[in-house]
Amino acid sequence: MKLTYDKIKNDSSICEYIKRADASLLALGFTEHSFAHVGKVAATVEYILTTLKYSEHDVELAKIAAFMHDIGNLVNRVEHSQSGAIMAFRILDNMGMPPEDIANVVTAIGNHDEGTGVPVNHIAAALILADKSDVRRSRVRNNDVSTFDIHDRVNFSVVSSELKIHSDSKTITLELEIDTRYSSVMEYFEIFLNRMILCRKAAEHLGLTFHLCANNQMLL
Q1: Enclosing H/E stretch for 101
Q2: Does the model's pTM come out above 0.70?
Q3: 108 with 205: CB under 8 angstroms?
Q4: Which of 140, 144, 200, 216 has its CA 20 to 30 A from that of 133?
Q5: Where does the pLDDT of residue 1 fall: very low under 50, low under 70, confident under 90, or very high at 90 and above?
Q6: Eight-class DSSP state of 216
Q7: Phi, psi (rounded to 5 degrees) for 11
Q8: Measured distance CA(23)–CA(15) in Å, rounded
Q9: Alpha helix (H) ranges present in the chain?
Q10: For residue 162, what is the DSSP state?
């Protein structure tokens, strides 16, 4: 039986790893990294690669990588992309995925984090852009605004975020609406600058130019 995104996202073991990885991040005070996040990332990689006319097979592999990209947080937050890639290799190999497909998925997972990631192929590039563009208020789990740290403030301040490809100009733009009562645009750059630099590199790999637009002001 062909290994599909639907089969992966309905696999009880993989779902358990995602839940437990997110529980570890909750204990550490991180924002949501569970099914809402990986589902949104999967939808975004599908949008990116479909718009750029990659094959349905590549889109399917990218969605699988997106769904599994954060399972390494089960091991440790530090170098979670590498540990997640190793976990994904074992899981997918045991599920009978062909080696060439495993290679693409594992490469994308192992390169999605801004600390060590490089957009070495189109699936990795799409995963980077999709993951780093998921900034939103609903990811914040701290209900006490008075105790927000900078990550809480920045995520909570983002009223809306949307990644848009403009094929005619070969650009991809992350459009943000930021409520500056909770965080300034400067704070966004303070914690996300390295992510935006990685997004720029990922966009270039896909033949696009990356832009960041906040409150209708072009910043990058």
Answers
A1: helix 99-110
A2: yes
A3: no
A4: 144
A5: low
A6: T
A7: -80, 125
A8: 12
A9: 5-9, 12-28, 35-51, 56-68, 80-94, 99-110, 122-132, 150-157, 185-205
A10: E
